[in-house]
Design a protein that fits this description.
Length: 376
């Protein structure tokens, strides 16, 4: 097991004890404007805020580098598929950094930035997409469940887990990530309802990246997703998902709310998927260049770079260090990916059932004989 140790040393929360978070006229929480200025109402300690910003920026920058490298590996035929998280780094890093390392996360399938923050390394992140394993990593050491591709199923898994930790008397909070499209699944509504009824210690974190493959959010729902919380009895928050500090502050607040026994919360982070749905998708078929351009101007990394420059929180040395670290991560991603060997397919028969029944043994033997019938 290799770790990136992103969360070491652990970040400290500069928002503890602050009085309310600024909202824009749209109604969402935003601490930093798209051009990188801190809202004047932010009354957090500036030194702590600077340290946190640098940590979060590092996590976002490394995630983008890994994402870019994985995309290139797919284009070069080394991965079967990759789902980019470009554009969603603030939503993911801001939220995962705001919860305790032992708070249990149930991701969807695009949460590479959150996984990397938790210490899940490139080989583990890529093996599933190279098609050499059914899933990537052992969830236990990371408190980070494997990816779920069945939309919204993870909300039910998370709710079940949260009811379990609640009954164990543990103070763990369970966080689950899902998309705007997944929010349309019945499973999502069932999970939120049963979590609310039981005051489960949970955060339902929706990354509304505007698209579910080629279906826009406007075709999914008439009411903003965060407003569903009121119907179920969840605390509801809406946040600028491209503002990493706002995401961090909001997620910290709802996590402590849930940890204190006040019940679950839903957070809708409005963000944008800058790549295609996956490497098999061509987004130019359904969205305009102008839309992409408008969201590029809200790039979550550029916003933090502008903020750090304005506040004097970064210098050439800091940025150079991160650049070197990102390059090293990209090299490691490529190295580890190319070293991932395909397992012997015949082994798959041995891992289905503890006691292999006669029929399965016969099928295995037939497969092995068939394979042996090929000339090299
Ligand atoms: C139950 C189910 N139905 C359909 C699909 C096919 N599918 C895979 S991803 C996707 C869109 C999901 O969109 P969203 O929830 O917004 O997540 P995003 O990909 O934008 O991160 C669909 C329809 C699936 N994986 N599972
Ligand atoms: Mg989506």
């Amino acid at each position: 097991m290799t770790t990136v140790d992103l969360a070491d040393p652990p970040v400290t929360n500069p928002f503890t004890g602050t009085t309310g978070l600024p909202r824009t006229s749209e109604g969402w929480t935003q601490l930093v404007t798209p051009d990188g200025r801190l809202h004047p109402e932010v009354d957090a300690d500036r030194d702590a805020l600077g340290r946190l910003t640098r940590d979060l920026y590092r996590g976002m920058r490394l995630a983008r580098r890994l994402d870019d490298e994985a995309f290139a590996l797919q284009r070069q035929g080394e991965l079967g598929l990759w789902l980019q998280c470009r554009g969603q780094e603030a939503a993911q890093v801001g939220s995962v950094a705001a919860v305790r390392a032992d708070d249990y996360v149930f991701p969807s399938y695009r949460e590479h930035a959150a996984a990397l923050w938790r210490g899940i390394g490139p080989a583990d992140l890529l093996r599933q997409w190279r098609g050499v394993a059914h899933s990537g990593w052992d969830p236990e050491p990371y408190s980070f469940h494997i990816y779920t591709l069945v939309l919204a199923a993870q909300l039910l898994h998370a709710t079940g887990y949260a009811l379990g930790v609640q009954r164990d008397g543990s103070d763990t909070v369970v966080v689950t990530y899902f998309g705007d499209g997944a929010a349309s699944e019945g499973d999502a509504s069932e999970a939120m309802n049963i979590a609310a009824v039981n005051a489960a210690p949970m955060v339902f974190f929706c990354q509304n990246n505007q698209w579910a493959i080629s279906t826009p959010t406007a075709s999914q729902t008439r009411t903003p997703i965060h407003r569903r919380g009121a119907g179920f009895g969840l605390r509801s928050e809406w946040v600028d998902g491209n503002d990493v500090l706002a995401v961090y502050a909001v997620t910290s607040a709802v996590t402590e709310h849930a940890r204190s026994g006040n019940g679950p919360a839903i957070v809708e982070a409005t963000t944008y998927r800058m790549g295609g749905h996956s490497t098999s998708d061509d987004p130019t078929r359904y969205r305009t260049d102008d839309e992409l351009k408008a969201w590029r101007a809200r790039d979550p990394l550029a916003r933090v770079e502008a903020l750090m420059r304005a506040e004097g929180w970064s210098d050439e040395a800091f940025l150079g260090e991160i650049q070197a670290e990102a390059d090293e991560l990209a090299d490691r991603t490529r190295r580890e990916c190319l070293a991932l060997e395909a397992p012997d397919l015949a082994d798959a028969f041995a891992t289905v059932l503890a006691d292999v029944p006669q029929l399965l043994r016969e099928e295995r033997d037939a497969f092995v004989a068939y394979r042996a019938s090929f000339l090299d």
